[in-house]
Amino acid sequence: MGTFALFGASGSTGAGIAAALDAAGERYRVVGRDRASLQAEFAHRPLAEIAIWNPDDPASVQAAATGIDTIFYLVGVPYNHFELHPQLMRATLNGAIAAGVRRIVLLSPIYSYGRPQSATVDESHPRNPGTFKGKMRKEQEDLVLAAHAAGRIEGTVLRLPDFYGGDPKKSLVGDIFVAAVNDRRATVVGPIDKPHQYVFIGDIGPLALELSREDRAYGRAWNFAGSGTITQREFANKVFAHVGRKSKLMVTNVFMLRLIGLFDPIVRELAEMNYLQSDPVLLDDRALRALLPGLHVTAYDDGIAQILSTMT
């Protein structure tokens, strides 16, 4: 049995952290609700141990955490049920602490900052979210940091921008890759000429593992700016250019999201977060780079080429 566990292991980020643990020769536990999906994703990984949990059952949470030193927390919820984020985090923390887990690493989006008050956002920027999703993510982060401050567990938060790579259906720019390969128009959410940041999915696992091993990482949050600042149009142009085509885009605006949202609750929720496209949060990650001076960042052209090589 390994000393690491991935709670909410299914998905692109879980696969990336598992790959980093495999490369390091570390045994680890993958934890989720559905054994079949975990088997499909991790049965071929000899270092992975599969465990099922029910976060509504404290004994189940404690059992899933027993024998573990460090938890990577990746648990997702339906986009229209963000009220579950603090509830699940509270249950996980209680079970992990009861099981004697030493450390927890929460991977979090940038929602907790709210609208930016400066051109770039470092970790001292106020967290004043004006959206329900941002408030739920802030509450989730606060639970981890409060548990650390109380001496119950060592906790840290890693804040990440939107990712590219992995399952195209789970990435805001995923359809760009599918469209480029199939020579069709890509559906994107505008505005598309504002600066943005994306993190290559392959960079998250090694970073999370390195951060988890650094004693100085705990008790606070860290920003990672990913592959750098770029507009969505520039990103799309790069993807299409890699397959020898000019980009073709169908841009959805916030009005269209609200209209579609009258019939689709998930799309309706996207409209609430559209400020991240029109008034983007651009992370300043100098603190993280000082903490981890060997931090590897994949350039956009290299990351895009790697993704397309698996699709063509």
End-to-end CA span? 37 Å
- Strand arrangement, major sheet: 3-2-1-4-5-6-10
What structural category do the secondary elements indicate? alpha/beta
State the shape: globular
- What is the number of strand segments? 12
Number of helices: 13
What integer is the average pLDDT? 94
Tally of discrete structural domains = 2
Top CATH class of the largest domain: Alpha Beta
Main sheet: strands, sense, barrel: 7 strands, parallel
Rg from C-alpha positions? 19 Å
The CATH superfamily of the largest domain turns out to be NAD(P)-binding Rossmann-like Domain
Fill in the CATH topology of the largest domain. Answer: Rossmann fold
Level of helix content? 40-55%
Beta content comes to 15-25%
Order of helices and strands: EHEHEHEHEHEEHEEHEEHEHHHHH
Low-confidence stretches: none
Tell me the CATH architecture of the largest domain: 3-Layer(aba) Sandwich
Keywords:
alpha/beta, Rossmann fold, seven-stranded parallel β-sheet, three-stranded mixed β-sheet, 13 helices
Describe the structure.
The chain has 13 helices and twelve strands. The chain has helices at 12-24, 35-42, 58-65, 84-99, 132-149, 174-182, 201-212, 232-242, 254-261, 265-272, 275-278, 286-291, 300-309, and strands at residues 4-7, 28-32, 48-52, 70-73, 103-108, 154-159, 162-164, 186-189, 195-200, 221-223, 229-231, 249-252. Helix 2 (35-42) links the parallel strand 2 and strand 3 (48-52). Helix 3 (58-65) crosses helix 4 (84-99).
